[in-house]
Amino acid sequence: MRRSNQGFTLIEIMIVIAIIGLVVTLSLPSITEYVKKTHRTQIAGLLSEQAQSLERFHSKGGVYSNAPGLSAGNDDYSITPVLADQSFTLTATPKSESMMAGDKCGEFTLSHTGAMGNNNLADGVTSKDCWGR
């Protein structure tokens, strides 16, 4: 008796492709949210580093204004500092061309008092959710 190799049928291949498509479709939103959470953690860390740099400058010169070397942000957020002699506020705004545009956490803010906040939060989201604390 001779045995022949028949391979896979078209139906079998289509079923495998459909299963792979279903798995990707169901997992994509959670993967995207995980990546966004990583970007939020990164900008929170960068804001904290900038605040520490401003505090070092203040301890040497007595003012926050005219502090050199502040970061403009990263690929996903732009940082805007508002510096006065005795106060500062750092605001990280999602860039419109990045995946963080329209993110549920909106803009991140950090002040000289250590107050962490967010502007333009989505409904049901708190600053604590966004800062990871």
UniProtKB/TrEMBL annotation:
Which organism does this sequence originate in?
A: Pseudomonas chlororaphis
Q: Which PROSITE patterns match?
A: PROKAR_NTER_METHYL
Q: Which Gene3D superfamilies match?
A: Glycoprotein, Type 4 Pilin
State the UniProt keywords alphabetically.
Membrane, Transmembrane, Transmembrane helix
The record's PANTHER family line, in alphabetical order, gives: GENERAL SECRETION PATHWAY PROTEIN G, TYPE IV PILUS NON-CORE MINOR PILIN PILE
Q: Which GO terms describe its biological process?
A: type IV pilus assembly
What gene is it encoded by?
Answer: fimA_3
Q: Where are the transmembrane segments?
A: 7-28
Q: What is this protein called?
A: Type IV pilus biogenesis protein
Kindly indicate whether the keyword Manganese belongs to this entry: no
InterPro entries, alphabetized: N_methyl_site, PilE-like, Pilin-like
